[in-house]
Sequence to fold (462 residues):
Amino acid sequence: MAEFVNRTAELGRLESLYESNEAELAILYGRRRLGKTALVKRSLDGYDNTVVYQAKQKTSALQLEQFIDAAAPSFPGVERIREDWAEVLGYLAEEDAIVVLDEFPYLVEQEESLPSVLQAMFDHELDDSAATFVLVGSSISMMEEAALLGNSPLYGRSSLKLDIRQLPFGAAMEFLDDAYTADEQICTWGIFGGTPYYLEEVTADASLGENVFRTILSRHGTLHDEPDYVLRMELQEPTRYFSILEAIAGGKTTRNEIAGATGIDYNQLSKYLDRLTRLRLIDQHVPITERKERSKRSRYRLRDPFFRFWFHFVYGTGTEYDELGEGAFETVIEPELADFVSPAFEELCGDALRSLYPEHTITETGQWWYGEHEIDVVGITTGETLIVGECKFTQAPLGYDAFSKLQNHVEELRWTPEDGGERVETYALFSRSGFTSAVEEAAEERDDLELFTAGDVVEAFS
Fold:
């Protein structure tokens, strides 16, 4: 089981602040469970002049008292300072301390002036200081209000803003046992995503179904109510947001479909979708040849596979899975699992293109659709090559009909090379269960067709 993986770029950027000869402010934010605290603690390895305070929902006086207790081992003089946030933080700045205020929103809840205190320090008091202040928060909305948006007190004062997101597939798989097959890795990713805390719940001595039942489906599972908790921490009126997320997880991905499924007026829907986008819960997905601000064919999707799984299979089920017992996964989830994981597999195939086609400089990967035409994987290159692919995450081999369909669809895709030359199409077929003999024969005869297994895709990230 991996204790700490990836995040090397983030570590490097934090450590460069600690080494700076000037006062620095870093803002780390992102949904809970993504490993923000672990990242900061790892970045402090080898540093002695540190204060790390994990805020909780307590009164301001108690928080300040406990903060001083946390600072005293490294800076004993802090106990002689008047118990006032401005005085205490000012003293630590004079000592060139590295000060981490974890779960900063809990502090601001009780001490609304704290962002302004820090603002005044950075504006007027820290010219001769080499201190670093690191503010960490799981409530994205409160971090925006305190430090990120244009009207927030600390806007423009930070040297570093880190939007902590899920681990990429390759890093996430370091949490799994080496015995996991490529299929099992892709399915695990399609359910648990790249959130470290969720992946830590997956044990090597249990099957995927046993892990899912124990952690998610059972009402006593450690992750059973996780999305509910996360969303209620961010949203004042969660019911409509829950309905939107459930609709998207169920395949209603256009604005019209979401409005129809939820009963929310089409014209009111934008504010809810914008809010969910800002919270990194959904994103607007457009054909690769279009831009979000102009496209009329946008779709919405849940960014986190785990949230997608929860809203698709768990939300609103009550005690149904407990009544089914340990057979719940095999009865309810497994028959739908291949279809459910397919979108995640398609994204992985797209992300793998750069490794699978190293001879091309691929500038952008994505998907494309227009009317009844759809292409699962598209890679745009700096040259004349357009890479297009079809993905099948089924128990049956990929047949020649899928290749024929891909060739028909690509005729409708409007793209020309930047130099105005004639484009060259290269085909990639991705399959969980291999290929029919007709497809394999075609790949042997053609130099514009490559076949990739699930193992090839997983290997591309190692």
Observations:
- Residues 217 and 321 are 6 Å apart (CA to CA).
